[in-house]
C-alpha cells in the first residue's frame, strides 16, 4: 500500500525518528484502532523518545497540513484516539518514564506513556497513590487519562484526573512547547491552561510531561453493602452520605437488573433488591472504624433492606465480588454493548434510572445502569446482539434519547470517557451556540491549522 | 469634570442602566480604587441588575472600544479591579442573589455580587459551606473570589476557588453569553472553560452566574499548636502531616518573627520558637478525636518544642489568637506592608524562609513569613515606613528578588491573590515565551479587541 503521506514528510519523520517511525501495514492498522472498535489505518506511526522529537514532528506535520493524533494505549471507548485518513499517529510508549516521585511534596513527574497501574505500584512503595482509577488502569496510560479526564470509583473522594494534575508540558498545534501550571497545590498565577488541556483529547496539544498531585495511601479500608427497595431510596441514601463530613472513598450503584445479572450470570451471592450501594471507607486503622460507622449511619433510612459490613479484607472482597462480576456478566449475555458514562446531579439519579427503564421498554432493549453514584456518574449500558440488525438499529436509536434525557435532568454527556467522535454530534445539545463557538475559537488559539486530532470533541461548524 | 467616555456610549449606558449608571465624581473615584491603593477614577460606573444588561453593556463598550473592568467589592491587593483611564467599571452589587441552594446535590447557584460571608451563613443553615475562606470573607464577593482564584486556610483540605466551582455563565469580550461546566461534580464533556475563567481576573469574561460545589459543614473541630526549634523541623512536620491519610482542615505556619510579634505586639500567650504550626482537625464528634490524634502523631518529630492540644472550643480560640493577633500587630509596627502570597513546594519552605531572612538582612528590612503551610503558600510581608523614602525604595527593590527566589525554588508568584498589575511584569519570569504567547492568544480568543480589564495579568508583549 503506498503511503498516504507526502513523501517529503515521510522522509523527514523517518530521519527524525529512525526506528521510531513505522509505516508497515500491521502497525498502521493497530494504531488506527481503539476500544471504540472504529478507526482507519494510520498513515504513519511515530514513536518519539524525547519531547524535542514531538516538537519537530508537529512542525513537520504542520508544514504539510497533515493531522497528528496522540495515542496512549488505545483504551478510549469514544474513538478519541483513532486517526482519520492520512494522519500520523503519535504513540507514547517510548516516553513512559517516571521522572520523579517526591513524597515530601506529594507530586510525581511523569512522561505520558507510563501506565496508570505501573505508576500506582511505584507510588505505593512511598505510601502514595494517584487518584484516577479507571477500570483499565493496568493497560491505560497517564497521558490517556489526562486526555479524556479519566475518573473511576475513587473520584467521589479524591477527584478525577483534572483535579489531580498540577502542571503540564505540551506541544501545541503550532509546534510550540508550552509549560503550564506549577509544582504547587495552590496557584493563582495567570491563565489555567493546565486544566484546559486535561480532557481536550489531544485536540489542543500533545502532552509530553505531567506533574501529578498525589494522595496518601490509606492503610485501612472497610466496605459496606446496602440494598434498597428502589432507586429513590438508594439515591436518598447517596444524598445523605454526601452531606455528612466523612467522605466515602467509593460509592458505587447498581440497578435491579445489574443485581440480578451479577447473581444469575456472575454467580455473586446477593439477593434481589431495587438498588444496591457499595460504600467504602478509608483511612488508618483507627479512623476507618469510625468512618465506617458514620457511613453506615448515613446509609440507613427509608427503604433500606439490608446493610452488610465487611469485618475484614476477605469479607470486603466478597462484597465487591458482585460489582466485579458485573462487567463479565454483561459481556456474556450480550456481545454488543454501548457503554455510556452520563452524569446527572445526585438528586436526579432516580429520574435517570426510571427514564432508562422507559427507554428500554420503548425500544425493546436490555439497558442496565451502574456506576459512580456519589458523582451521579452512571454507566448506562445498552445491550444488543450485533448480529441482529434490527436490535442493533434500535440500540443506536435509543442513544440520542439517553443523552436528551440526561441533559433534561441537568446532567452532562460524559463523566470520565470523554467525547471523541462517539458523542461529538451531541455537543450542540449540551452547549449553546456561543459556548460551542468559543470552544472552537479556543481550539484555533492552540491549533490554528486544525492539525491536532481533527474531528474529535467538537462537531463540525454549521455551514 | 467632563466624561472621558464617547457621548454616544454614555447615553446608551444611561438608557440601558437607568439608576444603575453613575458618573458622579465620588462614585467614579470610589470605583477606581481597590485594596492595592492604586487606581484612577472610573470613566463611568455600571451597576447592572441582570445578565442581559451585562451583555448589552459589553456590546456597547466594544462598539466604542472602551475598556470594561469587572469589580466585586474591591478587596484585591494586586490592582486587579482598578480601571485604567477611560474605563467603565462594572460593579456587581445589584447582582448579589443566591439563586439556589440544593443540599441533595451539594451545589449553590449564585450571582457574582453575593458576599462570601453572606453565602456561608445561608449555607450553614443547610449544614454546608463553600470552601474558599479568604481573610476578607465578610467583605469580598464570590465573583471576586472566582476572578482571582481565592483561597484561605481551608484550601489545604478542601481546595481553593477553582477546585470548588462546577459551572459558570460569563459574558466574553465579544458580548457573548457563554455557559460552561455543569451542575455535576464530574465532567469530561468538551473544553474546560470554567476553570480557565476562574483566576482570569476579569480579562476573559465577566462572570454573571456561578454553580458552586459545596462541602458538608463539619460538626466538630479540634486545634493543635506545635512549636519547633526551626523552620526545617516545622517543614518536615508539614511533610509528615500531608503524607498521612487524615487531611488537616487547616495547617498554618508562622516564622519566628511572627511568633514574637504576635506576643510582643499582639499580646498572644506564646513562647519564642523557631517556627509555629497551627493544625486543625475537623469531622464529627467521634471522628475528630481520632483525626486529632493522627495529626498530633504526625506533628511529633525532631525539633518539636511543644505540642498543645485544645480540649474545647474556648481553648482552641486561645490557640488561634496568636495567629489572629498577627495582622493587627503587623499594622501596628509598620504603616507600609507589601503582602505577597508566593507558593513553593512544601519541601522548599525552609529555603524560602532562609532566603527571605537573607533578603531582610541585605535590604535592611523587616520581612516576616506566615500562612498556609500545607500548600506551601506563605504570606511574605515586607514591612516599611511609607514616609521613609529610602526604606520604601528598599522594600520595592526587595520584591523582584523575592519572586526570583520563589521561582528558583520551583514555586510560583501567587497562590491566592492573583497577578493584577502588581505582579504582571514578573509573569515573563514565571512562564517561558511560548507559554506567555499562548496565554495572549487565549486572551484574544475570549476578547479579540482587548476591552476586558486591559493591562492585567499579562505583561505587554515585547515590542
Automatic annotation (TrEMBL), chains A, B:
Q: What residue ranges carry the coiled-coil annotation? A: none
Q: Which cofactor does it need?
A: FAD
InterPro entries in the record: FAD-bd_oxidored_4_C (IPR004113), FAD-bd_PCMH (IPR016166), FAD-bd_PCMH-like_sf (IPR036318), FAD-bd_PCMH_sub2 (IPR016169), FAD-linked_Oxase-like_C (IPR016164), FAD-linked_OxidoTrans_Type4 (IPR051914), Oxid_FAD_bind_N (IPR006094), Vanillyl_alc_oxidase_C-sub2 (IPR016171)
> Keyword Transmembrane helix, does the record have it?
no
Signal peptide from the UniProt entry? none
* Entry keyword Protein biosynthesis: no
Q: Which Pfam families match?
A: FAD-oxidase_C (PF02913), FAD_binding_4 (PF01565)
Give UniProt keywords alphabetically: FAD, Flavoprotein, Oxidoreductase
Looking at the record, the residues that make up the FAD-binding PCMH-type domain are 37-217
Indicate what this protein is called per its UniProt record: FAD-binding oxidoreductase
Q: Which organism is it from?
A: Coralloluteibacterium thermophilum
Amino acid at each position: 500500500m503506498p503511503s498516504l503521506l507526502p513523501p517529503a514528510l515521510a522522509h523527514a519523520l523517518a530521519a527524525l525518528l529512525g526506528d521510531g517511525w513505522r509505516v508497515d501495514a500491521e502497525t498502521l492498522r493497530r494504531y488506527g484502532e481503539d476500544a471504540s472498535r472504529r478507526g482507519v489505518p494510520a498513515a504513519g506511526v511515530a514513536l518519539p523518545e524525547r519531547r524535542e522529537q514531538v516538537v519537530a514532528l508537529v512542525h513537520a506535520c504542520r508544514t504539510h497540513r497533515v493531522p497528528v493524533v496522540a495515542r496512549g494505549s488505545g483504551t478510549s471507548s469514544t474513538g478519541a484516539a483513532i486517526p482519520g485518513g492520512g494522519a500520523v499517529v503519535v504513540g507514547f510508549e517510548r516516553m513512559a518514564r517516571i521522572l520523579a516521585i517526591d513524597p515530601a511534596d506529594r507530586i510525581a513527574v511523569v512522561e505520558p506513556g507510563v501506565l496508570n497501574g505501573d505508576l500506582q505500584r511505584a507510588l505505593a512503595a512511598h505510601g502514595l497513590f494517584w487518584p484516577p482509577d479507571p477500570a483499565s488502569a493496568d493497560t491505560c496510560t497517564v497521558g490517556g487519562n489526562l486526555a479524556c479526564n479519566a475518573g473511576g470509583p475513587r473520584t467521589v473522594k479524591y477527584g478525577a484526573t483534572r483535579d489531580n494534575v498540577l502542571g503540564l508540558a505540551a506541544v501545541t498545534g503550532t509546534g510550540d512547547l508550552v509549560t503550564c501550571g506549577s509544582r504547587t497545590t495552590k496557584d493563582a498565577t495567570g491563565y489555567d491552561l493546565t486544566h484546559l488541556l486535561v480532557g481536550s483529547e489531544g485536540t489542543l496539544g500533545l502532552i509530553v510531561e505531567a506533574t501529578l498531585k498525589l494522595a496518601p495511601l490509606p492503610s485501612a479500608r472497610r466496605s459496606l453493602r446496602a440494598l434498597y427497595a428502589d432507586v429513590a431510596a438508594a439515591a436518598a441514601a447517596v444524598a445523605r452520605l454526601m452531606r455528612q463530613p466523612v467522605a466515602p472513598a467509593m460509592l458505587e450503584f447498581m440497578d435491579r437488573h445489574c443485581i440480578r445479572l451479577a447473581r444469575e450470570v456472575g454467580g455473586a451471592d446477593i439477593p434481589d433488591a431495587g438498588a444496591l450501594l457499595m460504600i467504602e471507607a478509608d483511612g488508618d486503622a483507627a479512623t476507618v472504624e469510625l468512618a465506617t460507622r458514620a457511613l453506615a449511619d448515613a446509609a440507613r433510612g427509608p427503604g433500606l433492606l439490608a446493610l452488610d459490613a465487611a469485618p475484614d479484607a476477605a469479607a470486603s472482597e466478597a462484597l465487591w465480588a458482585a460489582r466485579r462480576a458485573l462487567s463479565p456478566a454483561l459481556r456474556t449475555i450480550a456481545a454488543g454493548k454501548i457503554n455510556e458514562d452520563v452524569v446527572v446531579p445526585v438528586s436526579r439519579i432516580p429520574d435517570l434510572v426510571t427514564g432508562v427503564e422507559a427507554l428500554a421498554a420503548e425500544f425493546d432493549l436490555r439497558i442496565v445502569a451502574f456506576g459512580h453514584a456519589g458523582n451521579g456518574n452512571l454507566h448506562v449500558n445498552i445491550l444488543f446482539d450485533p448480529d441482529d440488525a434490527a436490535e442493533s438499529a434500535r440500540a443506536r436509536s435509543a442513544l440520542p434519547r439517553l443523552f436528551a434525557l440526561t441533559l433534561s435532568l441537568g446532567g452532562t454527556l460524559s463523566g470520565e470517557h470523554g467525547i471523541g467522535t462517539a458523542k461529538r454530534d451531541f455537543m450542540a445539545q449540551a452547549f449553546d451556540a456561543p459556548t460551542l463557538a468559543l470552544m472552537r475559537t479556543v481550539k484555533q488559539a492552540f491549533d490554528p491549522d486544525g492539525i491536532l486530532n481533527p474531528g474529535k470533541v467538537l462537531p463540525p461548524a454549521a455551514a
